[in-house]
Write a structure and sequence with these properties.
mainly alpha
Length: 173
């Protein structure tokens, strides 16, 4: 009887992982994917550039442009009661303090030279021994980084749209 229980408990983990993998894949590989529900919540937008910016933002924000396996592992880490890896820091007021995500360089970087970005060393501010001025300065830099990232995502999507229009005009594959 003990062997039977041990065997059942041993097979429980791969069974649960298999079920979660199948459910996630059904959602991810369905027409429209996971992002279809997120994009449809944006309401009716008539401006195509605005729709493209929203789609690019959602893809980048939720990692929908990553491979499906990476998305699954990230999702599994979020729902798992056992937490692995690094967590975002929280300041004494409970607000989340995290480093801005790295912006990927454009695929055709040789077409243009990006403006020089200010170099800022990121040191997490926990609130201990830091002045309000330092915390405000950090928050300002974080907002600027988020704004620059949004502008980059919109520009990259617009570039792809313009490139696609050009290719359609030339009847190229």
């Amino acid at each position: 009887m003990v062997n039977f229980l041990i065997r059942r408990l041993f097979f429980m983990v791969p069974t649960i992982l298999g079920i979660t993998f199948m459910v996630f894949m059904l959602l991810a590989l369905a027409p429209g994917g996971i992002g279809a529900g997120l994009a449809s919540q944006g309401g009716q937008m008539s401006d195509t550039s605005r729709v493209a910016q929203m789609q690019a933002y959602l893809e980048d924000r939720y990692g929908l442009n990553d491979p499906v396996i990476v998305q699954y592992l990230r999702w599994l880490g979020r729902i798992s009661p056992v937490k692995f890896g690094e967590r975002d820091l929280r300041n004494p007021s409970g607000e989340r303090v995290s480093a801005p995500r790295e912006v990927k360089p454009p695929e055709m970087a040789w077409l243009f030279t990006p403006p020089a970005a200010p170099t800022v060393d990121f040191t997490p501010i926990t609130g201990e021994g830091k002045s309000e001025q330092q915390i405000d300065e950090f928050r300002k830099l974080q907002r600027e980084a988020e704004g620059a990232r949004r502008a980059y995502i919109g520009s990259a999507r617009l570039f792809k749209d313009v490139l696609a229009d050009y290719v359609r005009e030339k009847d190229a594959p």
